[in-house]
Each structure stands twice: as structure tokens, then as C-alpha cells.
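User: Predict the structure for this protein chain, please.
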Amino acid sequence: MTTGLIAVAAVAAGVLERPQLVLGFVICALVFIPLEQLIPLIHRPPRPDWVVDVVHSFANRLPITIAFAVALGVLGPAAHRVFPSAVRHVVLAQPGWLQFAVLVLVADLANYAGHRALHEIGPLWRLHAVHHSSTDLDWLSTSRGHPLDQIINLVVTVLPIYAIGFDLSFSAAFMAFQFYFPFLAHANTRITLRPLSAVFVTPAFHHWHHALEPEAVNRNYGAIFSIWDRLLRTSHLPRRLPTAYGIPDAMPASWLGQLAAPFRARPSAPGRP
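Assistant: Here is the predicted structure, written as C-alpha cells:
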């Protein structure tokens, strides 16, 4: 009873802190629920643990917002000072469309590096394992994640944007796109967009990132572009689809249990016993 009340209070705090998130969530639900029902990749009934992912969607918002603001307030000015001013002037002197293209590429490369660290550094993987604990992948799986994991990923992605000093409207447009795009990458739909995987992170590409198979361990880190994985030899995209998703270790079913799990258990890397 107490844990349920804590979860409800956390969800309410997240909604009050960022009410526009509700609209974004509703838009995603209206798009992906029919899509997954009409043309599913895997035919199955609704998974019983979908509620915990809804809780993650909102309950994690307030701690993420507070910690992100503090971290960026400390690290952002330092990053801005050490970034070469000559490079900054060259970048910001370009036309708006080119600045936006540079912003997306730089932020996505930073995201790749942060995501790779979350997999390959033991203590960070313990946080990130919460996101990978979904055994049935769908659009809601996007929301499952430990707040500390999400804070690290967000700070690493945004820090170079802050250091260069891009226009805030560009940054806001990129962050909005980055919010919606992963829902498609995780979706349980036959729209896998495999031909686009040479450049972009498609559902076919990202599903292998979540696969519980040895050959998929530490692969497909990209968030928007798959080119980083191809250049850095972490790409894995067989013709077939994964046979199983998740992590080898058990994960608590509740939201609070999943928040505590990284500090109690030591989950192994995906696909490893």
C-alpha cells in the first residue's frame, strides 16, 4: 500500500512539473497502440508489466529535471569555457540549417558515447539494465529506465550542445525529436524500416540492441544514426529478428523495486549468463 502511494505521488509530481509530457504520451499512445495491434511484429496479448512503464514515464521526470539542471549548471559553463572559441565561431557562423545538422550529428555522437559507457562500464550497466529488463519489446519499453541512467545519458548528450552554444530553438527541436523517435525504434510493429538501417536507427536495428542473444551483446548503441556503430564496428543486423529480449538476471516487477535493483544486484551484460 505504501509503495503504491509513493508511486502515485511521484507520478503526480512528474505530471505537475511537466504537464506537456502528458500530451506527448497521449500522442504516442494514439499512434503506436493501433499500429502494434494492426501490424504487430510479434503477436501476443498485452504484457502484464505495462503499468510499471507508465509509472516510469512520469514518476522519473521530477528527479531527472532537478538533477539535470544541477549537473548542467555545474558542467555546462566549464564545457563552454574549454571548448575552442575559434571552432565555436566557425560553427555558429553557418546557415541555420547547417548549424542544426551539426547539432544533431554532434549530440548523437555524444549519445552514442554515453550509451556505450552505460553498457561497458560495470556500475553504469547496473543502472542501464533496468531499461533492458523488458522481455517483450514495444513502444512503452522506451519509458522504462532508471532516473540516474537517464540523467547521465541526457547530460552527456546535451553538454556538447551547451559547450558550442547553439540557438535554444535548435536545441529544443532536437530534444523534441529525440523524445518521440525512440518510441518507434522500440515498437512491436512489422514496420521495421530495415533498408534505412544503413544510416538510421530503425526498429529492426534497435530490436537487436535489446536482444538476449550472445552475438547481440554490446551492439547497436546509436540513438538516431546507425553510422556511428558501423564506423566503430559495433553494428549487428542479421536478416532474421531476435528470438528473445531482456537480461539474464531477474528484475523486480515494481517501479520502486527497479529503482533499488542496481544497488542490490549485479546484473550481467545483455546476453551473458
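Residues 200 and 225 are 4 Å apart (CA to CA).
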